[in-house]
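Exercise 7b. Backbone tokens:
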């Protein structure tokens, strides 16, 4: 904690500095914001299209899939997924394999076994 004299000096300096204007909650967003939103590569992609992409087409570094049944999440780096499953492998198939390889919900019945993937988009 600074001594009292230094605290007073810091408070005086802060009072002299101009406060940047804060936008009102209902103020329109700047044009730069909308440009960055529209330039985002995920803009035109639906979740179904993302799941059908080949690993070589995905630009994200980390791929994540979770199970709706046991609520487990599995992450893998894209480079590792390409090395293990090949660049032409479809993300949906790779995700299902990742979940099935470590599935903890085994009942012995084929219809009930396995995880139910929920693909997350960052």
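Sequence design result:
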């Amino acid at each position: 904690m600074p001594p009292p004299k230094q605290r007073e000096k810091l408070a005086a300096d802060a009072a002299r500095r101009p406060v940047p204007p804060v936008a009102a909650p209902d103020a329109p967003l700047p044009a730069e914001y909308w440009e960055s939103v529209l330039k985002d590569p995920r803009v035109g992609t639906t979740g179904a299209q993302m799941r059908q992409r080949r690993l070589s087409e995905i630009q994200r570094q980390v791929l994540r899939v979770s199970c709706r049944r046991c609520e487990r999440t599995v992450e893998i780096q894209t480079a590792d997924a390409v090395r293990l499953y090949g660049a032409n492998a479809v993300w949906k198939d790779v995700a299902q394999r990742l979940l099935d390889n470590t599935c903890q919900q085994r009942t012995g019945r084929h219809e009930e076994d396995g995880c139910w993937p929920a693909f997350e988009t960052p």
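Instructor comment: The two ends are 41 Å apart (CA to CA). The longest strand covers residues 62-67.
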